[in-house]
Each structure stands twice: as C-alpha cells, then as structure tokens.
Amino acid sequence: MHILFPTALGLLDLRLIIHLRWRYSRGFSQTWRQLLQIPSNASAGRKTAVAVTHCKAGRGLIKINGVPIELVQPEILRYKAFEPILLLGRHKFAGVDMRIRVKGGGHTSQIYAIRQSISKALVAYYQKFVDEEQKKEIKDILVRYDRTLLVADPRRCEPKKFGGRGARARFQKSYR
C-alpha cells in the first residue's frame, strides 16, 4: 500500500519522502529540501500569549490565524507586527510564506509574540535553506533595532502572598 503526499514535485510516496529526508540530513542538496517544502518552524511568547510560525518557500504571503498581516487588529498595533518586515525590507520575505497561529494573552502580548515569532522564523529559514552569512546579517539588523525581536522577555507576574493585597504590598500596620 502506498501513501501519497502532495509536494511541490507532485504526489510523492511516503517511503520516498522518508528516504529523501534521510538523505538531505546527510548533506543532500538544499534544492530538494525546498522542493519537498519542509517548513522551518519558530515559536515565541510574551506573558501568556504564544505564537507559532510555519515558514516555507512561497510567494511572500504572511497570514496570522488565517488573516493577512495587513488586516491585523487592533489597527494601532499593526505597525508593531510589521516591524520585522519594514526593517529587513519586503525582498527578504518575497520567497517565503508564513502561517502564524497565536493564542492566549491580550492584544498587545499577542502582537509582541507575533513580531518575535516572525523574526525567529525568518532567521531559522535563512539558516536552513539560504546561507549563514545572510542569516547573520538579518540577525544583526534585528538585534541592533530591538533585542526582543529575537530574545524572549523573561519577566513574569509574581504570585500574591498572604499578609497583603499583592506580591509585595503589605497591609497597613497599626501600633496602637
């Protein structure tokens, strides 16, 4: 029994795909990797928001939860989601399709998770399919502008303790 999967080459047998994956992991030409459209994945988070990006060779489409990036809501934060694209230029994203799934958190946290995820996915794609020199160039541009485009913010909300209204605030003390 043959299990067929759609790829850029047409329908391929599962055994052939496994064989090709085994071969490319041992130095097989990168054109085969692109023809099989093996995606480069990256995830990013901000507070409780998590964004996962699947990045593969394509026509430059960027969709967030099935919606084009140009229609991201809220409109005020749309520019923040566009930052990696504006910094690097549309030509870097021209041959890449990105599908981003984001959940959790609020609007602002989701947008910050999206922009970090886009940046990390593009760096991973360039490392995997293009070359190390261009990857380093992209990484340097992003880090020079804003380090949080590639590095997660480690701050988390501290849990409340007894004896006060919050994590550090204490109830007022009376001596008389």
TrEMBL record:
Signal sequence span per UniProt?
A: none
Q: Name one GO biological process term.
A: translation
- Gene Ontology MF terms: RNA binding; structural constituent of ribosome
Give a Gene Ontology cellular component term annotated to this protein: cytosolic small ribosomal subunit
Keywords, ordered alphabetically: Ribonucleoprotein, Ribosomal protein
Q: Name one Pfam family in it.
A: Ribosomal_S9
- Family under the similarity heading: Belongs to the universal ribosomal protein uS9 family.
What name has this protein been given in UniProt?
A: 40S ribosomal protein S16
